[in-house]
Specification:
Blueprint (H helix, E strand, L loop, with lengths): L1 H12 L4 H8 L4 H28 L6
Protein backbone atom coordinates (compact mmCIF):
# COMPACT_ATOMS: atom_id res chain seq x y z
CA UNK A 1 0.00 0.00 0.00
CA UNK A 2 2.82 2.41 0.85
CA UNK A 3 4.51 1.67 -2.47
CA UNK A 4 1.26 2.36 -4.34
CA UNK A 5 0.67 5.62 -2.47
CA UNK A 6 4.21 6.83 -3.16
CA UNK A 7 3.91 5.93 -6.82
CA UNK A 8 0.63 7.84 -7.15
CA UNK A 9 2.07 10.88 -5.39
CA UNK A 10 5.10 10.80 -7.69
CA UNK A 11 2.93 10.56 -10.80
CA UNK A 12 0.67 13.41 -9.70
CA UNK A 13 3.58 15.64 -8.59
CA UNK A 14 5.74 15.04 -11.65
CA UNK A 15 4.35 17.90 -13.80
CA UNK A 16 4.96 20.37 -10.96
CA UNK A 17 8.64 19.55 -10.49
CA UNK A 18 10.12 21.51 -13.38
CA UNK A 19 9.36 25.02 -12.08
CA UNK A 20 10.87 24.53 -8.58
CA UNK A 21 13.98 22.98 -10.12
CA UNK A 22 14.39 25.94 -12.47
CA UNK A 23 13.95 28.35 -9.56
CA UNK A 24 16.68 26.54 -7.64
CA UNK A 25 18.94 26.74 -10.70
CA UNK A 26 18.56 30.52 -10.76
CA UNK A 27 15.89 31.05 -13.39
CA UNK A 28 13.48 33.77 -12.30
CA UNK A 29 10.06 34.74 -13.63
CA UNK A 30 9.90 37.83 -15.85
CA UNK A 31 8.32 39.95 -13.10
CA UNK A 32 11.22 39.26 -10.77
CA UNK A 33 13.70 39.90 -13.58
CA UNK A 34 12.35 43.42 -14.07
CA UNK A 35 12.55 44.09 -10.34
CA UNK A 36 16.11 42.73 -10.30
CA UNK A 37 17.17 45.03 -13.15
CA UNK A 38 15.80 48.07 -11.33
CA UNK A 39 17.48 47.03 -8.08
CA UNK A 40 20.83 46.50 -9.80
CA UNK A 41 20.61 49.91 -11.49
CA UNK A 42 19.81 51.57 -8.17
CA UNK A 43 22.66 49.77 -6.44
CA UNK A 44 25.07 50.77 -9.21
CA UNK A 45 24.07 54.43 -9.00
CA UNK A 46 24.47 54.39 -5.22
CA UNK A 47 27.90 52.79 -5.57
CA UNK A 48 28.99 55.40 -8.10
CA UNK A 49 27.76 58.19 -5.82
CA UNK A 50 29.71 56.71 -2.90
CA UNK A 51 32.83 56.51 -5.07
CA UNK A 52 32.42 60.16 -6.08
CA UNK A 53 32.08 61.21 -2.46
CA UNK A 54 35.09 59.16 -1.42
CA UNK A 55 37.21 60.49 -4.28
CA UNK A 56 36.39 64.10 -3.39
CA UNK A 57 37.26 63.59 0.29
CA UNK A 58 40.58 61.80 0.04
CA UNK A 59 43.65 62.77 -1.96
CA UNK A 60 44.69 60.52 -4.79
CA UNK A 61 47.15 57.78 -3.74
CA UNK A 62 50.84 58.22 -4.52
CA UNK A 63 52.66 55.67 -6.64
Amino acid sequence: MIWLALTLVAIVAHPFQLRPVRLLEGDRPAVLARIRVRAVRRQESRRQEAERRTASLSPSPRR
